[in-house]
Design goal:
Layout lengths: L1 H19 L18 E4 L12 H17 L3 E3 L6 E17 L5 E16 L7 E12 L4 H23 L5
């Protein structure tokens, strides 16, 4: 008898809980008020590093624009008078030996890419950011950089874009 009453009241309790609670969940982590922010300007990210790999600029810029387009409802514009601006440059592209073996040779090499980002919020200057982001990937020293460079640049660019998005538009 009590079990039947509990079973009949369970849907009512669930509905009351759902009506009384509002949970906002975003799948991408973006924390943007679309009533305030409509546009974003993403500038070119020229390479200012001592070592230059020309395709990196286009790879990074495309990944950043694609990520913003697919994870926000912001409209990208070609002029810097947008609600939000993301500007910067690729400041580092470095190789360093890692995991030195007993015969003093490195068994791993690390490719590190650094990107300086200036994020400007035209509506709230307290959210402005001027920060350098860095990411790296290790590869076996027996491989030639030219053989793994494209793959590594893609992976590192994806990580950098994620870090930049979380620090700016994601507002973590």
């Amino acid at each position: 008898m009590k079990a039947r009453i509990a079973i009949r009241l369970l849907p009512l309790l669930v509905m009351l809980c759902l009506v009384g609670c509002r949970i906002k969940i975003t799948m991408n982590g973006a924390a943007i008020d679309y009533n305030v922010y409509k546009t974003v300007y993403v500038s070119e990210f020229p390479i200012r590093a001592a070592l230059v790999y020309p395709p990196l600029q286009q790879t990074f810029e495309n990944k950043l624009l694609d990520y913003i387009s697919s994870n926000t409802r912001l409209r990208t514009v070609d002029t810097p008078n947008a609600d939000l601006q993301i500007e910067g440059e690729i400041t580092g592209y470095n190789l360093s030996p890692q995991a030195v073996t007993e015969n003093a040779y490195a068994s791993q090499t690390r490719l590190t890419i650094q990107v300086r980002v200036r994020y400007t919020d035209a509506k709230n200057e307290n959210k402005d950011i001027d920060q350098t982001f860095s990411a790296y990937r290790d590869f076996d020293s027996s491989q030639m950089l030219t053989d793994v460079q494209d793959q590594l640049c893609n992976e590192i660019s994806e990580e950098l874009v994620d870090l930049i998005f979380n620090a700016t538009l994601g507002d973590w």
